[in-house]
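Weekly sync, protein design subgroup
Attendees: M.S., D.O., the rotation student, P.L. (late)

Item 1: inverse folding check
M.S. brought a backbone from last month's batch and wanted to see whether the design step gives back something sensible before we order anything. D.O. pointed out we never logged the input encoding, so this time it goes straight into the notes. Structure tokens as presented (608 positions):
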């Protein structure tokens, strides 16, 4: 009854919202978009609702307006909204409707990208992990199981967002079907199926496709507007779109990149603003609409980062910071690039229009040393195991992210090579509680020498999912954990126990007092700190090894001493005056008990 009442209240609110909203038309002209019949140039910037604290959505929108943007683009992430099959979630930071409504209240239009594949440097490209448990399911194809699950998802998205299209009184101008499909395939029947499902879900406004220039022909569905990614030479943009759109426009660069993303173990990517301002100036002067990817990247919280892998190159898991060297930095602050782009946009404003002043910078603080006063060995707080003769994958265990501890008992002394076939992605090997070595998929490491003593011995392998591949032909080879078998001196090891450690919520508060004994196993640590004033800050994790941090129940993301990211951004919205709680799961340096914060991020320090 309570659920029905809540649904009734939400429906009533939506009816009232749209009754008061003015309906507009948004259409394709021969050379420009037409808003209410008049030419309109989109100056859009991408930012993603889950990468920004919900409490900061409005502030980021105000920053977008101050730079001169009139539109916000965002992906929608299937794995956030349907984390387990049939269980949908649009609450809290997943409240995409609120994100859209705030944009409208701030005078911004929206471009929606439900896709459902998003890439986005996001876990599994936005697909929920459980799709891999449907035997025979083929993503991005006409395979029936995939289309059935896709249809359920897009129908739920339609229920939430179709009423907010511009032709219904909302601020959603356009909706993108699929996403850079030409880089993956060329099945026009599949693209047409996408279009039909979007329409059936209630998206009856303007639909479009987007692809890199070299893949646009393959990824475009005739009849829809083709948008291009990564090309900013006006003559080429116009020719490409005309050639694929009956000789007409409008002309839209759906992803214009002011910089790039980062992955673990490689330098931070930065590009000076002056390398981009001439192209931006030229594009706007030619009447071409644009969506900057990213205007503001934010942070990939929790375990939602993706990874790149092409088969003949190293596996490349992305870092937690999604700063992107964007105009608005990870914390939402103005950068020189922001100011340079603002100056360019200002030149092309319609007559009589001015930009609002740039909002003042947020307060920043540095927290003195924080001592973590309690600790517990991860291996002492294991859940009930699941047993199987051979190792089970994360998917077999119905576990999306985090860690799984694999344990077996060795019955006799053995010396030889321990080989884990197709380890995904990072394994710490322990023999009788002592660390024997680390195996890292990035470095193509899958084996180490092991000497097993006389008598029974316990072999543990703690395996971390570092992020499922989010781009390319390997989307369907994305299972995690020990995905094949384990060999010792050439003999397969059997009799495994799997302990799921998803850490999908903040760690438990029941932790023992720190003992001065030495230990090599991962530790879960807890402490508190007191604040008289709050502000943005950055935890300095450079003296730590590898793990995850929670503050006041919020997962800040992964840290890893190899860099380039050495700090974790702590939003002011997640701190409070008085007592704050911090928890750290440390995998490699269990003796660490102290950390502090700094006022500026460290995103470009690689440690070999």
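Designed sequence read out in the meeting:
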């Amino acid at each position: 009854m309570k659920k029905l009442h809540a649904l009734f209240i939400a429906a009533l609110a939506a009816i009232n919202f749209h009754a008061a909203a003015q309906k507009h038309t948004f259409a394709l002209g021969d050379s420009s978009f037409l808003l209410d019949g008049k030419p309109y140039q989109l100056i859009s910037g991408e930012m993603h609702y889950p990468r920004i604290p919900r409490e900061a959505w409005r502030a980021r929108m105000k920053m977008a307006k101050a730079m001169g943007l009139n539109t916000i683009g965002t992906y929608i992430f299937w794995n956030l909204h349907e984390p387990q099959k049939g269980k949908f979630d649009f609450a809290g930071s997943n409240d995409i409707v609120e994100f859209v409504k705030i944009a409208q209240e701030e005078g911004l239009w929206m471009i929606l990208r439900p896709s459902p594949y998003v890439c986005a440097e996001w876990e599994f490209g936005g697909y929920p992990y459980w799709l891999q448990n449907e035997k025979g399911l083929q993503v991005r194809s006409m395979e029936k199981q995939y289309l059935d699950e896709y249809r359920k998802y897009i129908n739920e998205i339609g229920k939430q967002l179709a009423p907010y299209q511009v032709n219904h009184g909302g601020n959603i101008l356009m909706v993108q079907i699929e996403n850079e499909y030409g880089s993956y395939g060329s099945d026009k029947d599949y693209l047409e199926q996408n279009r039909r499902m979007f329409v059936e879900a209630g998206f009856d406004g303007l639909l479009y496709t987007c692809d890199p220039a070299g893949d646009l022909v393959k990824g475009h569905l005739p009849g829809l507007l083709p948008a291009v990614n990564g090309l900013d030479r006006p003559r080429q943009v116009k020719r490409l779109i005309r050639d694929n759109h009956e000789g007409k426009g409008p002309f839209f660069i759906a992803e214009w990149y002011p910089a790039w993303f980062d992955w673990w173990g490689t330098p931070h990517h930065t590009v000076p603003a002056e390398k981009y301002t001439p192209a931006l100036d030229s594009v706007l002067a030619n009447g071409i609409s644009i969506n900057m990817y990213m205007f503001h990247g934010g942070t990939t919280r929790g375990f939602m980062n993706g990874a790149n892998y092409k088969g003949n190159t190293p596996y490349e898991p992305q870092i937690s910071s999604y700063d992107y060297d964007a105009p608005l930095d990870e914390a939402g602050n103005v950068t020189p690039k922001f100011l340079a782009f603002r100056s360019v946009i200002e030149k092309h404003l319609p007559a009589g229009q001015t930009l609002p002043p740039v909002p003042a910078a947020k307060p920043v603080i540095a927290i003195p040393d924080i001592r973590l006063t309690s600790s517990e060995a991860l291996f002492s707080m294991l859940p009930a195991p699941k047993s199987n003769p051979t190792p089970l994958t994360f998917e077999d265990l119905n576990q999306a992210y985090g860690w799984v501890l694999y344990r077996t008992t060795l019955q006799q002394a053995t010396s030889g090579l321990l080989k884990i076939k197709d380890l995904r992605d990072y394994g710490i090997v322990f023999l009788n509680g002592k660390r024997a070595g680390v195996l890292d998929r990035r470095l193509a490491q899958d084996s180490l020498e092991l000497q097993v003593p006389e008598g029974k011995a316990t072999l543990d392998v703690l395996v971390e999912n570092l992020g499922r591949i989010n781009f390319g032909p390997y989307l369907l080879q994305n299972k995690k954990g020990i995905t094949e078998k384990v060999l010792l001196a050439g003999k397969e090891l059997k009799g495994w126990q799997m302990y799921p450690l998803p850490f999908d919520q903040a760690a438990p508060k029941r932790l023992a007092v720190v003992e001065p004994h030495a230990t090599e196993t991962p530790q879960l640590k807890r402490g508190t700190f007191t604040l008289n004033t709050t502000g943005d800050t950055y935890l300095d994790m450079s003296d730590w090894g590898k793990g995850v941090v929670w503050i006041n129940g919020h997962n800040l993301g992964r840290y890893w001493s190899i860099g380039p990211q050495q700090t974790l951004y702590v939003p002011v919205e997640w701190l409070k005056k008085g007592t704050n709680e911090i928890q750290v799961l440390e995998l490699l340096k269990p003796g660490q008990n102290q950390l502090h914060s700094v006022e500026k991020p460290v995103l470009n320090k690689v440690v070999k």
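Discussion: The first helix runs from residue 2 to 20. Residues 370-375+508-598 form a domain with the Jelly Rolls fold (CATH 2.60.120.260).
Action: P.L. to compare against the previous round before Friday.
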